[in-house]
Amino acid sequence: MTWPAPGICYGGDYNPEQWPRDVWDEDVRLMREAGVSIVTLGVFAWGTVEVADGVRDWSWLDDAIDLLHAHGIAVDLATPTAAPPSWLLTAHPDITPVLADGYREPPGGRNAWCPAHPVYRRYALRHVEELARRYGAHPAVRLWHVGNELGGGNVRCYCDRSAAAFRAWLADRHGSLDAVNEAWGTAQWGHRFSAWEQIDPPRGRHGAPNPSLYLDFERYSSDALLTQYLAEKEVIARHSAAPVTTNFMVGAGAHIVDYASWAPHTAVVATDHYTLVDDECREQDLALAGDRTRGMSPGRAPWLLMEHSTGAPSWQQRNRAKDPGEIARNALGHVARGADGVLFFQWRASRAGAEQFHSAMLPHGGTRTRVWREVVALGADLRRIAEVAGTRVEPARVAVVVDDAAGWALQHGLMPHRGLSYGRELRAWHRALWDRQVLCDVVPVTAALDGYDLVIVPTLLVVDDDAAARLAGVPERGGTLVVTYLSGICDADGQVIPGGFPGRFRDVLGVWTDEFYPLQPGERVALDDGSTVADWTERVVLDGAQAVVRYTSSSLAGAPAVTERPVGTGAAWYVSAALELDSLGRVVDRLLAETGVPRTVEAPAGVEAVRRVGPGGSYLFLLNHTDAEHAVTGSGAADLAGTDLLTGAAVAGRMLVPPGAARVVREHRTHP
Ligand code: GLA
Q: Which of 595, 615, 635 is the last residue of a domain?
């Protein structure tokens, strides 16, 4: 697709409707000063345009788009369907969603609509049609932004309309009621259904809904929101040739919707990312989100960071400002991992409304603030590295496999251990690689795995035949497969695969688990590598594999904890325990040594290094997240050589990166 603005896009959400007209002139002047090249316009502007049913006041939006265009700023035009107007919600109060406990959301928020509601759909598409007709050919409109954080902002809807839509979805997926009964194992508790009307969403506060029903309801809910996205996209395409996307919320855990299945429907994968105050390694969470966003971008094509923050958001308990330099490090961290645009929420801090204390590119204190100075400096940095745009992150040799459905299944129902979040192992394995400057793609379970030397599969509870076969194929072709506990246990319907855990992966791993031993709070089991584990252990029986690490305490003493089965020139590893970072790091060191996967550079943990490559050059991003200066050298025999585009300094051999600093080195090396 044609990229919406030259170089690395820079900008944010722009809400001129919150300000008097004379402020807009200052806005565009300051946008130019900061190097803003694109803004997202109109995200929540349904009620300020369609002021009454069918009555539209386009004047302010006409004016804003023309003004931006006159100043050379591209528009990412949003369909404002995230927030229906008050008059519509008053006329049709049942548009808002009903929660699992029967509580209907009141108006006054946003993203509060039932995706199965025909009135909402009709009004939303009618407005999108008018919007696209009016601006579809406007030269400023370079990108369309459908709704806002579909799936992230929306809650699940359990109303009667959703129940009916769920039943239709089930008929489509399973073909017959008998097939549903079979897939869900409804013989248990005598829940057999004899008519479709007997099936409801998993409502209620307590109890234990059938896990297979729950899993299908999650899938239905993802598809229901995707249907809304696709309907809006189709309307837009009737009037505009500009590319269409929507802002995902890609993170480390199980998403609210299955974004990987949505990604092929976007012209460019776009996502929002906010760091969390209580995250003990915020930068790694950011890196993981980037690796996962790239992993779902078809062809690993450049993606767009649609939102992040210049400082404190307003939705956490204690909203933390970013440290000096952190704004640039965060933004460049996304670029390093494949973003060709970094945008913020939002351009100018709002005086009023729910988000009045949210940080912005232009804070309440105006241009004399530190944030403003750093925003202007970042804009200049992005211009200095403009030639990076269009290059790709170098091919990773390690893949970490993720699947939202596996996460939904893991986190729900009467599980052996209800305190395990899906993102936990994903974070831990990614962290060990991140600490070592080893690049990985975080890929959906549907991805081709051929190019990877090392494939890591954390807690993939649910797995279908196709994915199981592709994963088993990794060691057979000489690669190394690593599978953690609670993987391969259930089929795609959520039914346990008989014969012992880890079901689908037993044969390839050469082990089977006799019994799970989830640990109690405070309980720890020792390993023969000198570490201890909390939360999860298993009694593993070798069946072709050999033990790499053994348990040395509890009733499991002497039993294998980590195993390896050589398969030709490849290997299949099983990790049965929730390893701590030190122990996991030792396993990773051994895996890297055995597979020959190199580090991007040699540097201490906390220094991030990623390379982007293209026909025009090779660019090494270095981000020092620590508060000490660190030396970075090439990996193996390769020396660092090139020019830092941010400072202009020549780089030869060894590079000193000051605390908190970022460097982007155009390297004197050609890349295959
Ligand atoms: C989300 C939304 C934005 C804004 C930010 C604040 O990402 O998409 O509209 O509310 O959160 O952090």
A: 595
Domain extent, residue 199, equals 42-245
For residue 149 and ligand 1, the question of a CB distance below 6 A is answered with: yes
Number of domains in the chain: 3
Give yes or no for residue 485 CB within 6 A of ligand 1. no
User: For residue range 514-571, what is the model confidence (pLDDT) as tens digits?
Assistant: 999 999 999 999 999 999 999 999 999 999 999 999 999 999 999 999 999 999 899 9
pLDDT digits (tens, 9 = 90+) for 161-197: 999 999 999 999 999 999 999 999 999 999 999 999 9
ω into 106 cis (within 30 of 0):
no
Whether residues 474 and 581 share a domain: the answer is yes
Site to probe by mutation for ligand 1, drawn from 18, 111, 149, 249 as the one with most ligand atoms within 8 Å of Cβ, is: 149
Q: Is 59 exposed, middle or buried (0-12, 13-18, 19+ CB in 10 A)?
A: exposed
551 domain residue, yes or no: yes
Mean pLDDT calculated for residue range 280-286: 97
Pocket test for ligand 1, best of 14, 110, 145, 307 (most atoms within 8 A of CB): 307
Token pair recorded at residue 443: 């890929």
Q: Which atom of ligand 1 is nearest to the CA of 247?
A: 8
Domain boundary among the residues 230, 245, 260 is at: 245
Residues labelled catalytic? 149, 307
521 and 640 fall within a common domain: no
Is the CB of 345 inside a 6 Å radius of any atom of ligand 1? yes
One-letter amino acid for residue 579 of the chain? L
pLDDT of residue 621: 98
Same domain, 472 and 408: yes
431 with 570, same domain: the answer is: yes
Index of the ligand 1 atom closest to the CA of residue 309: 12
In percent, the amount of the chain with pLDDT more than 90 equals: 95
The two structure tokens encoding residue 598: 């190199």
Q: How far apart are CA 516 and CA 324, in angstroms?
A: 47
648 shares a domain with 524: no
Q: Tell me: do 622 and 571 sit in the same domain.
A: no
641 in the same domain as 570: no
Q: What is the CATH number of the domain that holds 188?
A: 3.20.20.80
Atom in ligand 1 nearest the alpha carbon of residue 43: 9
Between the alpha carbon of residue 317 and those of residues 274, 311, 351, the distances in Å are 14, 14, 20
Q: Check if 82 has its Cβ closer than 6 Å to any atom of ligand 1.
A: no
Ligand 1 and 274: CB distance under 6 A: yes
Element (H, E) at 555: none
**Ligand 1 proximity of 529 Cβ (cutoff 6 Å):** no
272 C-alpha vs ligand 1 centroid, how far in Å? 8
Q: Report the atom number in ligand 1 closest to the C-alpha of 148.
A: 8
CATH no. for residue 499?
A: 3.40.50.880
| pLDDT tens-digit map of 579-596 | 999 999 999 999 999 999
- Per the CB < 8 A criterion, the answer to whether 495 and 212 are in contact is yes
Ligand 1 center to 621 CA (angstroms): 28
Q: Which amino acid is at 564?
A: E
Residues 587, 655 within the same domain: no
Q: Look up the pTM and report it.
A: 0.98
Domain annotation covers residue 261: no
Ligand 1 site, residue 272, Cβ cutoff 6 A: yes
Q: What is the pLDDT of residue 670?
A: 56
Does ligand 1 lie within 6 Å of residue 110's CB atom? no
Query: For every residue of 273-314, which 3-state class applies, written as one string?
Result: CCCCCCCCCHHHHHHHHHHHHHHHCHHHCCEEEEECCCCCCC
Q: Which of the four pLDDT bands, split at 50, 70 and 90, describes residue 672?
A: very low
Q: How far is the CA of 116 from the centre of ligand 1 (A)?
A: 24
- Asked if the structure places residue 260 within a domain, the reply is no
Domain assignment present for residue 432? The answer is yes
What's the residue count for the chain?
Answer: 672
